[in-house]
Specification:
single chain, 336 residues, Spore Coat Polysaccharide Biosynthesis Protein SpsA, Chain A, 2 domains, ten-stranded mixed sheet, two-stranded antiparallel ribbon, 15 helices, globular
Length: 336
Amino acid sequence: MVGIVIVTHNSERVIGESLDACLRQKAVQVLVVDNASTDRTLDQVERRHGVRLIANSTNLGFAAAANQGFAVLDTPFVLLLNPDAVLLTDLQPLVEAVGRTGVAAAGGRLVNGDGSPQDGFNVRGFPTAATLSFEALGWNRLWTNNPVNRRYRVSTPQSEQEVEQPAGAFLMLRRAAWEYIGGLDERFFPVWFEDVDFCLRLRQRGFKILFAPAAAARHEGGHSVLAANFRFRELAWYGSLLTYATKHFANRGVRAVSAAVVLGCPPRMLRALWHQRSFKPVSVYSRVMWLAAKQFLAGRSGELEAAHGQNAGPAPNSQAVENISVAEKVVRRYHT
């Protein structure tokens, strides 16, 4: 038996097809964890018998919602699947990959609508301080073939192999490994970098991560994030980027990334001012620069204040995650 956890937020347009493909799989438990959607996402889920639903009254973020799903399911393997991903093949290649000794996770192949692989997204290397600095400065977009970006955004492997960071949009996990490292870190709120951090912690504990291209899903990409407002997107991305740097880099790396964020914001702000014809980008990027400057001064010694204005709480441990009181946070609905 395999569990499938799908975290939704205003996913009405895409979740139906994704769930229909999941329900065609054999021996699966499908669970949707909804983060306070305001559209008709819940209606789409409730129309599909056999899908279990956790409906959060507030947006808890992707990591917390995924942890909720793991806590409810009891299957040895759990697939994290984005709501805009539609399974095209059987999940057996992922099950076989994760079932091997020492393997904790396995990613499947994501393809575009025309069947072409999503190169640069399917598999990536773990980001270094240089990687995130280049991202913040926009250099990876302006000079896509630079050596830092080539190591980060790699081509889709044609055969099964060990990798560093497969896409979290289609990622099979071994439950025992998830419990061992304490689940996803909920400090990455509301989204971004939580899957990267999770894979890195798996590797640091000696687990292997595989890419199994025999398993495939069609993936739209970013449906929920692209629909969010500008302020939400920018503050969430920069906040999670700085959180990752602070958690995993030495002082020099944290300060390099923080400085790159400060230097990279003004040109982004000017471009946003031109396109939006409003002064909203000034307040957004001013806050990002303030957070980055504060982190530059503190280095690793200071706990990052989340971009949404709250201080990041402690990372969850395995016991805390296992004992999540779902009833206190959510409304649960079951359909059989």
